[in-house]
TrEMBL record:
<dbReference type="InterPro" id="IPR029058">
    <property type="entry name" value="AB_hydrolase_fold"/>
</dbReference>
<dbReference type="InterPro" id="IPR013783">
    <property type="entry name" value="Ig-like_fold"/>
</dbReference>
<dbReference type="InterPro" id="IPR050583">
    <property type="entry name" value="Mycobacterial_A85_antigen"/>
</dbReference>
<dbReference type="InterPro" id="IPR004193">
    <property type="entry name" value="Glyco_hydro_13_N"/>
</dbReference>
<dbReference type="GO" id="GO:0005975">
    <property type="term" value="P:carbohydrate metabolic process"/>
</dbReference>
<dbReference type="InterPro" id="IPR014756">
    <property type="entry name" value="Ig_E-set"/>
</dbReference>
<dbReference type="InterPro" id="IPR000801">
    <property type="entry name" value="Esterase-like"/>
</dbReference>
<dbReference type="GO" id="GO:0016747">
    <property type="term" value="F:acyltransferase activity, transferring groups other than amino-acyl groups"/>
</dbReference>
<feature type="domain" description="Glycoside hydrolase family 13 N-terminal">
    <location>
        <begin position="65"/>
        <end position="124"/>
    </location>
</feature>
<dbReference type="Pfam" id="PF02922">
    <property type="entry name" value="CBM_48"/>
</dbReference>
<protein>
    <recommendedName>
        <fullName>Glycoside hydrolase family 13 N-terminal domain-containing protein</fullName>
    </recommendedName>
</protein>
<dbReference type="Pfam" id="PF00756">
    <property type="entry name" value="Esterase"/>
</dbReference>
<dbReference type="GO" id="GO:0004553">
    <property type="term" value="F:hydrolase activity, hydrolyzing O-glycosyl compounds"/>
</dbReference>
Length: 418
């Protein structure tokens, strides 16, 4: 028997065929796109660098109660492993011991609150701590980093306080006929305000550059924390590159990766005076491009080692620029310097002129075992001879960042007092 509805159903089927085909086509297209996208994402993940990194269960360094610190390294095939750090106990040296699982360990009973650098030596090869991702460069060497708290280390750590900003700024140098780089810290609220600020010019040592005080010296954290505690005046901190023959830190000059870190005394222009005599161009650039209080009473210059040498002669040759001077373990062994050069000659008269112009603080600090201890004692005799007023601080230890960060903590609260 013929279904009376069959002709109508056939007509409807013929009418819906294109719709069914389109639906099928969309379904196939969607599946194909899904497969392609999955493949692309999968390839991208596999192609991404360092996806094999795993945290693992090993902890190093492990800081326990009382600032006891344990270091660990998994090296089952190693024959000997030692550690070298810049803490004072046992000269920072330790021999690590291996357990049954091939993990070497060493514990320092108690580290005073500070920021520390360390490395491992595995069968005579120096290594970073592979499970500690925090490193910094000092001259051409990389070191693993740790901070112990409940003291000075608290100022080297990030806290829940308002934060300043750090910028790498290029300036045109007429003296050196090229562009040069400085690092500039501006205090919390600088961008939102119209306030003008005093300026500390903070100079690095031999082998350093415009990055040294930021990384090794922890300047942004120190200033953020001191400002938050109202222990220092909010200030701009300018950290220029002090190597006359180099524009900037290694890897940041027109030489690119061809310029590797070296000690400054191997570079042209070392202690020949051009940097000190031309320093005013840095001050002028900062006063033009930042909201500064452009007056002598609102400027300070300080530095460590070579930077202390620079600070001495920058301030002596420009007595109208700075009311505050800080010499941190200054590299002022004058027997190794040509004191007949224009920047360095006639020092006593320059100091007398600087004293006559007026100076609010001349601060000097050094460790008792520092290699530059005796030259600084000789320099004090020159100051005493002409009755030049100064504040002198002695600390323990030697020529080391632990002292220079500590000196910055002592020096900055004395600046820009009304």
């Amino acid at each position: 028997m013929i279904n009376p509805l069959e002709p109508a159903l056939r007509k409807q089927a013929r009418f819906n065929l294109p719709n069914r085909f389109l639906a099928l086509q969309k379904l196939i297209t969607k599946k194909v796109l899904t497969i392609i996208l999955t493949a692309i994402v999968s390839f991208g993940v596999r192609a991404q660098q360092n996806t094999g990194f795993r945290q693992g269960s090993l902890v190093s360094p492990q800081i326990s109660e009382g600032n006891s610190v344990t270091f660990r390294l998994k090296a089952p095939l190693a024959q000997s492993v030692s550690i070298k750090g810049d803490w004072e106990a046992d000269g920072g040296k330790g021999t690590m011991t291996k357990d049954a699982s091939g993990v070497w360990s060493f514990t320092v009973a108690s580290l005073p609150s500070d920021m520390y650098l360390y490395t491992f030596t595995v069968d005579s090869v120096q290594l970073l701590d592979p499970v500690n991702p925090f490193v910094c460069r000092d001259v051409g060497n990389l070191f693993s980093v740790l901070i112990t708290n409940n003291g000075k280390g608290d100022y080297y750590s990030v806290k829940e306080v308002p934060h300043g900003s750090v910028a790498r700024t290029w300036y045109p140098s007429t003296a050196f006929k090229t562009s040069r780089r400085m690092t500039v810290y501006t205090p919390p609220g600088y961008e939102e305000s119209k306030t003008r600020y005093p300026v500390l010019y903070l100079l690095h040592g031999s082998g350093g550059d415009e990055e040294a005080w930021v990384t090794l010296g922890a300047v942004p954290r120190i200033l953020d924390n001191l400002i938050a505690e109202r222990k220092v005046e909010p200030m701009i901190v300018v950290m220029p590159n002090g190597n006359p023959s180099k524009q900037a830190a290694p890897g940041e000059t027109k030489e690119n990766l061809a310029y590797r870190p070296v000690m400054s005394n191997t570079l042209p222009g070392y202690k020949e005076g051009s940097y000190e005599l031309s320093f005013k161009e840095i001050v002028d650039f900062v006063d033009t491009h930042y909201r500064t209080q452009a007056m002598k009473s609102k400027r300070a210059v300080a530095g460590l080692s070579m930077g202390g040498f620079h600070s001495l002669f920058v301030s002596a040759n420009h007595p109208d620029l700075f009311d505050y001077v800080g010499l941190f373990s200054p590299g002022i062994n004058f027997k190794t310097v040509n004191m007949n050069l224009p920047a360095y000659n006639d020092l006593e008269n320059k100091l007398a002129a600087q004293m006559k112009k007026g100076i609010k603080l001349y601060w000097m600090g050094i460790g008792k075992t520092d290699m530059l201890y005796e030259p600084l004692q000789e320099y004090k005799k020159i100051l005493d001879k002409i009755h030049f007023p100064y504040k002198y601080v002695e600390s323990s230890r030697g020529h080391i960042w632990s002292n220079w960060r500590s000196y910055l903590l002592e020096f900055t609260p004395l600046l820009f007092k009304k």
